[in-house]
Design brief:
- About 5% of the residues have low confidence.
- The chain is about 10% helix and about 15% strand.
- The longest helix has 11 residues.
- The strands form 4 sheets. The protein has a 4-stranded mixed β-sheet.
- The chain has one domain: paralog of FGE (formylglycine-generating enzyme).
- The two termini are about 15 Å apart.
- It is mainly beta.
Length: about 300
């Protein structure tokens, strides 16, 4: 883990997606953060030690998914499948498929394996899976503020984790998508899919893959904008935790949206023509009951833990 010395910083952005606004100052205390995202190998140790069964491996409760097709109510997960023809990225169903049997052990579905990919970040993990691993490791998941502060690596208000130039001197700094998403993957950065952790340069704090490769869970519930009161501009909030959320899986039975946590960092599927979220300020709402082939996590430890 890397020791991150907390301080006041400018969180969010007023120049990109609306949910990143408003840019505002917050304070975070000292904490430690995993240098790398949790890998397949590390998650396997956890499962072996505890017998844990991940969300994507469990039977689904039909009551939580009213109207769902019965053939989809089986253990599985969402897998990216690149279309074989040019298309505009309009409907996510054009490149995401629910694959029965897909999970962290079989990331592309039955017949696939993580053998030989032990150092890639674990994926197909729900929020509760990430939280369970963190508790087992005597750690926690980061808040959105902690994650963003760490991702910035000491660069105040920079666009990317490494500065304002996406490809400084022509160098690829993160595992992202080159070409026209979702059908043209040029893999100019050397990786058509997930890369082993640490394949790209670290940021100023020595943290790897804080942009691209896989999205990362945070503890914060998602709101459409940062909860910031300009009347409190003189007093930056300390260790904010985002919006308060009391809803649960049960709300699905009355037709309400599934609760969503903030994920950060973007992934290998983020492209200039779609989802330019490989930036510290970027954020995305992820339902807590959804697992995919491009979301993982890393952990933190605070002084009081």
């Amino acid at each position: 883990m890397i020791v991150i010395k907390g301080e006041k910083f400018l969180m969010g952005s007023d120049g990109h997606y609306p949910d990143e606004a408003p840019a505002h100052h917050v304070i975070v205390d000292d904490f430690e953060m995993d240098q790398f995202a949790v890998t397949n190998e590390q998650f396997a140790y956890f499962v072996e030690a505890t017998g844990y069964l991940s969300f994507a491996e469990r039977p689904l409760d039909p009551k939580l998914y009213p109207g769902a097709r019965i053939e989809l109510l089986v253990p599985g997960s969402a897998v990216f499948v690149s279309p074989n023809r040019p298309m505009q990225p309009r409907d996510v169903r054009d490149w995401w498929a629910y694959v029965p049997g897909a999970n962290w052990r079989c990331p592309e579905g039955p017949g696939s394996t993580v053998k030989g990919r032990e150092h890639e970040p674990v994926v197909h993990v729900a929020f509760e899976d990430a939280l369970a691993y963190a508790a087992w490791a005597a750690k926690d998941l980061p808040t959105e503020a902690e994650w963003e502060f760490a991702a910035r690596g000491g660069l105040e208000a920079a666009t990317y984790c490494w500065g304002d130039d996406f490809n400084p001197d022509g160098k690829w700094m993160a595992n992202t998508w080159q070409g026209e998403f979702p059908w043209q993957n040029l893999a100019q950065d050397g990786f058509p899919g997930r890369a082993p952790v640490g394949s790209f340069p670290p940021n100023g704090y020595g943290l790897y893959d804080m942009a691209g490769n896989v999205w990362q869970w945070t503890k914060d519930w998602y709101a459409a904008q940062h909860l910031y009161d300009p009347r409190q501009a003189c007093c930056a909030p300390r260790n904010p935790h985002g919006v308060s959320e009391v809803l649960s899986y049960d709300q699905a039975q009355v037709g309400l949206p599934m609760p969503r946590k903030v994920v950060k960092g973007g992934s290998y599927l983020c492209a200039p023509n779609y989802c330019q979220r490989y930036r510290p300020a970027a954020r995305y709402p992820q339902p807590i009951d959804t697992t995919t082939s491009h979301i993982g996590f890393r952990c933190v430890r605070r002084g009081t833990e």
